[in-house]
Fold this sequence. Notes:
By secondary structure, the chain is an alpha/beta fold. It has helices spanning 7-12, 25-47, 51-54, 80-87, 118-126, 137-143, 180-186, 199-211, 223-231, 244-250, 275-280, 282-300, 305-314, 321-329, 351-366, 382-390; strands at residues 66-70, 99-103, 132-136, 152-161, 167-171, 191-194, 217-220, 237-240, 254-259, 267-274, 341-345, 398-401. The protein folds into two domains: 7-161 and 266-329 and 337-407, D-Maltodextrin-Binding Protein, domain 2 (3-Layer(aba) Sandwich); 167-262, 3-Layer(aba) Sandwich (D-Maltodextrin-Binding Protein, domain 2), CATH 3.40.190.10. The strands form three sheets. It has a five-stranded mixed sheet with strand order 2-1-3-10-4, sandwiched between helices. Strands 7-6-8-5-9 form a five-stranded mixed sheet, with helices on both faces. Helix 8 (199-211) links the parallel strand 6 and strand 7. The longest helix has 23 residues, at 25-47.
Amino acid sequence: MKLIYGSRAARNCLGMAPRVATIEVANTLLAFLLVLLIFGAAGLMAAAPASAAAEKGYGKSGDPIHLVIGYQPYYTESWSGLIMRDKKFYEKYLPKGSTANFQVSYLATNLRFRSLQGATIVNGMLAGKFDIGYVGDMPAIVSTSQADVRDLRIVSVLGVSYDQCNVFLVRTDAPDFKSPEEAIKWLNGKTVAVPKGSCTDRFAQAVFKRFDIAPSEYLDQSIEVITSGFRANKLDAAVIWEPTASRIVLEKLARKVATGASVNERDGGFMVMPQALITQRPDVVKAWLQAELDAEIYFADSKNAMAIAEMAKSQTTGFPKKALWDSAFGATSKASGGTDTRITLAYGFIPDATDLIQKASKFLVEIKSISAEIRPDAVVPQFTADILKARGLTAPVGEVKALPDSAYTGP
């Protein structure tokens, strides 16, 4: 049996959707065992002849198509996917009679486990279960490294930011720091947790190296365990992603003290498609990316902020609407790593996105998640470039701006 995206990623799959703030470690362990079963099943499917997934038929140009979309409402940088699910922009562009089935979880709802992190999406795509994936930078790169199982390509940039995955939180009784740099230096000799192998791990290690600091303990923990650790005063700090970072801050379990803006480190989200779909149905690829452009433009319009928060609320569990709104639109002081632009909606492959892909690829090789850096043909920029040209637009197509608290009008 070949487990494509290994047990470390399986452990970290727990992090995207904590059920409630009071989750018990025993339930986390149960969920972990369930995830291992899922990943084992995905591995079995992926270990089957590669042609099983690679030869999936998508029909002729113009035929109706039935797509299965793996997306992450629990990762704010990829929220164009949840906007797409709600607004159905794809109906305008796909052939008549087509459908799109958005998948958030492999598990039955009675198991109360509704997360679908990038690792799970990657396994689903490699097994031929998903046709389009909305993922973070690390899963996107890993997905392209298994061409012998199924050839997957990165076709669009969902977003690039400084503070969607790159968020340092510290315990509430930590000192009041005058700057993000002071906060980062305080981490030397402290207990720090991250989901290892994730974008948070890459960011944390880059920061530790730059500041020449070493935590006394560098723990590999899921988001649920990190949340419990802050609640039990067992952690000094952690690096996590949005919207969980905003939820933990809103619940006053920890404070945000630094982000990627503090050290010029970016994170990102990407769209992945199988080469079989690209080759057989370029009309569908173009149609979906036309709709994706509409979704990113919608995301960039601050008038839609409350509507987007409501969409996120309806597609997640365990998150207050205010925390979801904060994760995309909330303002943070510059002294804590805040930025005026929360997410750059690149759509096309702007230099910041391609630089991030290369940097993340090198890190994945270093930690032995992949055997070689990303191959050049793994990135397919032509579709987005052609669509932008036809519509008279350039990348990036918009920005999600930080808004004052007064702009939030919900409960």
